[in-house]
Amino acid sequence: MVSRRHPIDVSELVERARQAEPRAVARLITLVESGSPKLREVAEQLMPYTGHAQVVGLTGSPGVGKSTCTAALVTALRQVGMRVGVLAVDPSSPFSGGALLGDRVRMQEHATDPGVFIRSMATRGHLGGLAAAAPQALRVLDAVGCDIVLIETVGVGQSEIEVVELADTTMVLLAPGMGDGIQAAKAGILEVADIFIVNKADREGADQVARDLRYMQSLGGRHSEAGAWRPPIVKTVAARSEGVAEVVAALDKHRAWMRRTGELQRRREHRAAAEVEAIAVEIVRRKFGEIHGAAALHELAVQVAAGKLDPYSAADELVGSLVT
Amino acid sequence: MVSRRHPIDVSELVERARQAEPRAVARLITLVESGSPKLREVAEQLMPYTGHAQVVGLTGSPGVGKSTCTAALVTALRQVGMRVGVLAVDPSSPFSGGALLGDRVRMQEHATDPGVFIRSMATRGHLGGLAAAAPQALRVLDAVGCDIVLIETVGVGQSEIEVVELADTTMVLLAPGMGDGIQAAKAGILEVADIFIVNKADREGADQVARDLRYMQSLGGRHSEAGAWRPPIVKTVAARSEGVAEVVAALDKHRAWMRRTGELQRRREHRAAAEVEAIAVEIVRRKFGEIHGAAALHELAVQVAAGKLDPYSAADELVGSLVT
Q: CA geometry: angle at A100 spanning A98 and A106, to 5°?
């Protein structure tokens, strides 16, 4: 809660966060997540410090070992001296507002490491939704000097996909024995993944998962073009940290490729365009709300509910009242 | 696929659908779901026939027996001569685009009943998302003379909630022995449910689920106000059709209460306002896209990606270029 007697000094908060003071970082993220009126001021002040972090999305079905993998990856990145941010996105119950998956226990070892910032975000309860809140939280972690920000998310649901789309590099985790592991790896997954991780590689079926992935890659798609990035398939046993160094190497390689080809710039501009557009749409939605206050939207809604006007014509009128 | 040689005659299609010709109904729904250019024409022609159907949302965690309950309910409603529409909303894989839950087998008995229209919708693959497509599909089922349209959806995820919000009457299913059944029934569920169904009532723990619900209701909230609707708790064994007649009675009672109090009108106007606003936002988004074509959004995105401009100021510029 913000006290009226002590208004937030954004400059001071940003300064303290830039010195990696965990409470200041947490406070900044809370500010931007909640759509505070200070949001614009915070974004403005953070902008000059952004663009350094490699944003890495980590997704996969429940049970493939995402949390274990994230924890092992954080350890490995810390060992090479990197500052690491973790944004853990939990699908949350529509009714309780509480997170269904609260299993952050594997991250406990990092909880007191000053070079690691961990933040859990529920998919609900953010102004404008997770899709609006996540880029802001990312920006904070980027600006406070994280070299890598890992976004860990369950690969199911629209919100989670929107979050994955924030990443420079997307890693898709698979594991053998997940019912029909390769089912998850149909068509679309080849498009979204920059790196495949076959976790629990000590279990039966791991080689088959990797073979199936390779076979699907051989079928072509964008990765078969000359100079294109061909997503590597890395086998890990994250619980024993096996293969994690190879994941770090693959991340390095992907970043280098993205820089060399201009892909990093393209992805970030695409991301920025999506963010700007989403904020602009929110501004317009608020203006509709003001019109609503002036009863225009209500009048239109009454006619639509009565079957006297179709919603498209009503929307045209609403837009016409706002737009030149 | 639409053939160029045989352009769609919307009037004829609407006419045939109004005579309950299943293929015409299916074709209309496909048209509106896919955001066809004919969408506006279809909506316009359907409007005069809308407003008759009671839209009933049916939601609950996986495993409580939603499909079984829907099937039993359809049978009961058919027995009293009602025309019934079913909109089954399946969460779908983000990658494959295929539905995770395809279990419509219990509806097979209704597949050839001319008084029942069943439509499955995946949560993805619709222009503007499920939230945009579902009201259109509902409108078709309403306009072709359904007395009740059941929307069956898994009670998890943003899209599903948006769909539940389309209902006149929302039924929440619970079942004993669902791990921690009552957990799902925290705070918010009391607000969203108009009718509670405790399914699998022949199992141990069913009475406890009902008692817990009653206890929570006794704690107050909006339902304790004078004249307010107090959600009944109906016990069913849907697999044996037990208690289903009581569900039908509860639906009747809720509809009568909504009509008497003006709540039906309020909900429908609220829904219409949300739909009109969403369409208006889409129109504006498209206009931004046109601006994008003119490179303005791209220019702004480049500056944001470079850290030279914050996204809020960029959005202000974008809106400023469009709005008076």
A: 110
